[in-house]
Recover the amino acids of this structure.
């Protein structure tokens, strides 16, 4: 299990390279939800997403420990950007396996950070095969998007800042994050367990990529019955590592439809005047769908990123 000291060390390690992002509120959304919501705005983070934290924490340690001279990963977008960004910071080449269906805005950003993209079919098997080929060809070190303690510890720093900035005087009743592979949710759950143990952690997941809720219920890693969602950052399945942390420290996983995701995303754009991507809107969509369960509570929500293709908005 990742200790709080490990999370603190990760925060100290990445702090010179990242933003301490704002925590924002909005009265209209509070009124709509019937609760007090605090949004941790990782859409303002370097690379436009929280993933910069985990990528940096892992790659800075790869360099420190002299583990290799190149980096590889597979990702639909935000982790790809994080690894490309972090590799550039330390002067290492990066080889990123990305599904051909990944948003153009995310591919353009990865190339902009100087990484090489290897496109593959939009399946986990194709992504993993692509990474194996890169490792055989280049000897690169894999920085997995979520099945890596160093990545999880880096992602955990977002919730650490959220609690320190808005959850100390009056603790949060609930902290929420979306779930794909579970790296952010695992880190969020661990940080909350250490810093605010009476706070519940709840995840939001798209109905069109509903593997985590099944895994949470069965206790083993499950696949989603089907994959079809606008939340492109949440299409991966959990790992044994992330599932174990989630089962120990997460209270619930709630699913929402694409229409509910799009409505929540639009509400944030219109009322908060900030750009968020569909994956970021999933926890708010869950709050609005289950208002009776959240009524009157203080809720922290991690807005995971703002890397949305402006030519393909869902509204």
């Amino acid at each position: 299990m990742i200790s709080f000291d490990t999370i603190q060390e990760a925060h100290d390690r990445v702090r010179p390279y990242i933003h301490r992002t704002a925590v924002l509120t909005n009265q209209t959304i509070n009124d709509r939800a019937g609760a007090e919501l605090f949004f941790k705005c990782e859409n303002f983070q370097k690379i436009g997403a929280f993933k910069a934290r985990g990528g940096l924490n892992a790659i800075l340690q790869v360099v420190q420990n002299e583990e290799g001279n190149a980096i590889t990963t597979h990702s639909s977008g935000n982790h790809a950007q994080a690894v490309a960004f972090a590799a550039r910071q330390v002067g290492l080449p990066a080889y990123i396996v990305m599904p051909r269906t990944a948003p153009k805005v995310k591919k353009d950003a990865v190339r902009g950070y100087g990484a090489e993209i290897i496109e593959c079919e939009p399946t986990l098997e194709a992504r993993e095969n692509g990474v194996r080929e890169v490792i055989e060809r280049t000897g690169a070190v894999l920085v997995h998007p979520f099945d890596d303690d160093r990545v999880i510890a880096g992602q955990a720093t977002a919730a650490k800042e959220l609690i320190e900035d808005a959850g100390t005087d009056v603790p949060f009743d609930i902290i929420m994050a979306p779930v794909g592979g579970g790296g952010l949710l695992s880190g969020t759950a661990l940080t909350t367990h250490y810093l605010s143990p009476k706070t519940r952690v709840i995840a939001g997941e798209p109905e069109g990529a509903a593997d985590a809720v099944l895994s949470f219920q069965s206790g083993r890693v499950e696949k989603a019955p089907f994959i079809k969602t606008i939340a492109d950052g949440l299409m991966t399945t959990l790992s044994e590592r992330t599932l174990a942390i989630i089962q120990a420290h997460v209270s619930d996983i709630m699913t929402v439809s694409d229409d509910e995701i799009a409505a929540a995303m639009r509400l944030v754009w219109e009322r908060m005047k900030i750009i968020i991507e569909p994956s970021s809107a999933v926890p708010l969509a869950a709050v609005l769908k289950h208002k009776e369960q959240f009524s009157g509570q203080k809720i922290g929500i991690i807005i995971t990123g703002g890397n949305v293709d402006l030519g393909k908005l869902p509204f």
The chain has a mean pLDDT of 96.
